[in-house]
Design goal:
- This protein is mostly helical and about 130 residues long.
- It has one domain (about 15-130).
- Helix content is about 65%, strand content about 0%.
- The chain is built from 4 helices and no strands.
- It has helices spanning about 15-40, 45-65, 70-95, 115-130.
Length: about 130
């Protein structure tokens, strides 16, 4: 017999879709930063480190939104808020002073290389967390 899902659960619907999108971003950002750091870390260490930070943030958001581990909601809130600040700061720096980062990051130009989803995701995460507040 299946367990009933509570309203706003990430086991169905919008919540499940949000977790899936975050999981894809966690995987892609992790792979991107791992390859960059392993093959050419000396070319743009700050940019590649920022991509690694973004990967960790996406992993944390995925786990928090999927309600895995201790204190998942606090983890999710911390991750999506950090993500929002990160994408706004890195995006602004990359637009205003493009030479500061020697290469693109996940959050460069507000996530333009990823269809601006990195800019939209934290707002979606915040909206979902607010919507499912107990």
């Amino acid at each position: 017999m299946s367990r009933p899902t509570r309203p706003g659960s990430t086991r169905t619907g919008v919540g499940l879709t949000l977790v899936a999108v975050y999981a894809v971003f966690a995987l892609s950002a992790t792979a991107r930063s791992a390859v960059q750091l392993a093959t050419k870390a000396d070319e743009a260490p700050v940019a590649y480190a920022l991509s690694a930070v973004a990967a960790l943030v996406y992993v944390a958001a995925t786990l928090g939104l999927a309600e895995v581990g201790p204190a998942p909601r606090r983890l999710a809130w911390a991750a999506v808020l950090f993500e929002l600040v990160g994408v706004l700061v890195v995006g602004t720096v990359s637009v205003v002073a493009p030479g500061v980062l020697a290469d693109q990051t996940v959050w460069s130009s507000y996530g333009a290389g990823y269809g601006w989803l990195p800019l939209v995701l934290p707002f979606a995460g915040i909206a979902w967390l607010a919507h499912t507040r107990r």
